[in-house]
Amino acid sequence: IFLTLTVRNVEGDGLKPAISDMMKGFNRLMKYKRVDKATLGYFRALEITKNHEEDTYHPHFHVLLPVKKSYFTHNYIKQSEWTSLWKKAMKLDYTPIVDIRRVKGK
């Protein structure tokens, strides 16, 4: 599956601490039993886009998660649950945007 995990935009001086917090939050997320039970590992990439109008940065993760065969029948995690888990892992006081998609071969 392909997972995108976001946080709110930050100003330049807040970028380094935001990335540090995201790394810690991601490690917490992957250790949750619910996630560990469903996944086989991950490949994570950090992308940072810039909003030139507001002079802010948008750090976010793109994550490929190989899942166990039983994921779609027994261990499926809904998008809303991924969002709740990411919010909890990041200790956020707002609901972040989380996108989850199934990756299919041709």
Automatic annotation (TrEMBL):
A Pfam family recorded for this sequence: Rep_1
Gene Ontology molecular function terms on file: DNA binding
Keyword field: DNA replication, Plasmid
Keyword Transport set for record: no
Domain of life: Bacteria
UniProt GO BP: DNA replication
Keyword check for Protease: no
Record-stated family: Belongs to the Gram-positive plasmids replication protein type 1 family.
Protein name: Rep protein
Native organism taxonomy: Bacteria, Bacillati, Bacillota, Bacilli, Bacillales
